[in-house]
Amino acid sequence: MTAQKSLSQRAWAELMLLSLIWGASFVSIKIALDEVPVFTSVAHRVFWASLVLWIYVLVRGIRIPRSASIWGAFLVMGLLNNAIPFSLMAWGQLHIESGLTSILNAATAIFGVLVAALLFSDERLTPNRLAGVVIGFLGVATAIGLENLARVDLRSVAQLAVLGGTISYAFAGAWARVTLSGLPPQIAAAGMLSASSLIMIPLAYAIDGAPAFDLSARTITAIGYYAVIATAGAYLLYYRVLSMAGSGNLMLCTLMVAPVAIVLGALLLGEALDPRAYLGFGLLAIGLLILDGRILRILRPTP
């Protein structure tokens, strides 16, 4: 396993900022869903975010690819990384708390390791990774409550929908590795969001009907936040943090997002989570830290 970069103060600051942005996105989505249907909320998210990113690309003069194969890859990426997970998680948030959604969302890294081990020969499931995956799944099971999975109701199905979104994210990561490596990340983000807009706008119109624009200021603010700041802006910030901190340290962002969403959900929406959700998150956090090797390096004696 490669050594992780040490974090500068600036890298720490931007890592924490990204965590705050993504953590608040769960609450803003929940707010918008009070007035906007699920598929329309997702269509707003991907369309306005893609528009902002294309403006950024044009201002920076980044070359736009014209290959049909690349745009086909964008279409699949938009489906796996935006249309499917955004829709599943938004629907899930109709029936579960935003804080619990953020906890289950952290399982993306667990499924990412499993999908990579299945598809790539250089991503073997080592004993350390297997231990992290097992503990992570134990955390997810604890947060959900196995007894809830024994019965079928909206709450249990909503939690499974959120987990379905994390599985889609995992396959999106594998697809990006195969088809989009070498592309400027801003182009990859703008391309997949444009492709997902082509999917979500007709789907939203067919299922939800024509979008309403006479929305409350609260809803417009929530949509503007999760589309412009928590999607377009967060993608740009994500790649900055990735270059400064490295992929291993980005695991810390995954762990910091959930506490932000839990606190904001309590303060702004009056949400309260079952204590087992916190226990489940603790186990999931341990699993993630084992996956990236952080705990093992702390426990390993210095020679």
Task: Furnish the topology, listing elements before pairings.
Layout: H1 9-32, H2 38-60, H3 68-93, H4 98-105, H5 108-119, H6 127-144, H7 146-149, H8 154-179, H9 185-208, H10 217-269, H11 275-291, H12 294-299
Helix pairs in contact: 1-4, 1-10, 2-3, 2-9, 2-10, 3-8, 3-9, 4-8, 4-10, 5-6, 5-8, 6-11, 9-10, 10-11
Number of strands: 0
How much of the sequence lies in strands comes to under 5%
Gross geometry:
globular
Structural class: mainly alpha
Structure explained in plain terms:
By secondary structure, this protein is mostly helical. It has one domain (9-296). It is built from twelve helices and no strands. Helix 5 crosses helix 8 and helix 10 packs across helix 11 (275-291). It is globular.
Any key phrases for this structure?
mainly alpha; 12 helices; 0% strand; globular; 303 residues
Question: Summarize this, please?
Answer:
The protein has helices at residues 9-32, 38-60, 68-93, 98-105, 108-119, 127-144, 146-149, 154-179, 185-208, 217-269, 275-291, 294-299. With 303 residues, the chain is an all-alpha fold.
